[in-house]
Here is the input.
Amino acid sequence: MVLKFHEQIVSNLLEDTNGGLVVLSSGLSLPKLLSSFISFHSRSSGSLLLLHPPQLSSSLKSLLLSLSPDLPLSEITADLPSSNRLSLYSSNRILILSPRILIVDLLTQKAQTSLISGIVFLNAHSLSESSTESFIVRIIKTFNKNASVYAFSDKPHSMVSGFAKTERTMKSLFIRKLHLWPRFQVNVSEELERNPPEVVDIRVPMSKCMLGIQKAIVEVMDACLKEMRKTNKVDVEDLTVENGLFKSFDEIVRRQLDPIWHTLGKKTKQLVSDLKTLRKLLDYLVRY
Here is the structure.
């Protein structure tokens, strides 16, 4: 069963032949969206390349086939002979492969850019202007301007880390349209409200030793934050111990400091590093 907001996302993507970048809230079933999207691939237009991140290299094909058994999927691995690769690139199928394999095949002309109808990235949040994926897109777009480029991410917080992260990612992938799908979007919220999850809250109290360690770490964090406030380089309203307990705190600080990072002194940079370490220690305290 295809979700309504998945249908809307696919419809929006197919409207623009140039492609697009889709940023979803986490937990909105990116694999299902991907299987729905690639099922619309027309074999008459050429091969569709699906570049997988390293952590999904072994499970992506089986996952997609379990969702859509009729997909014309093939996988290109490093063990596949070059003659077989040539035939697969010209087969007009959906090909799953790693960026490393594709860049080698493009440079050695085993993969003809004229036979590629589009390329799909699943890890848009980890791409940059200097990444292999960006180089691949530049090569394909140079020789085949009609090739579509689609990028997906279900880690929105990573898309705003650094200076103009999303804009730079879109520019490096030659993408013009950005599609944002947060949980409060009408179609998404209606779908989620149909089957609300049953939440069971289980709390385990900390021991006396854990409380002592937590108090000591918080005191050190407070001292570091006071030193940070003296630099006048960051918004002091965000520099609180309460905010320092959350993972997003590192991104808040780096986002403010990235444009002026090269002008900061050694002491300020060390404070940023120390705060990150202290926050990790607090996380490890209750996790392990």
Notes: The longest strand covers residues 19-24. The chain has twelve helices and seven strands. The two ends are 39 Å apart (CA to CA).
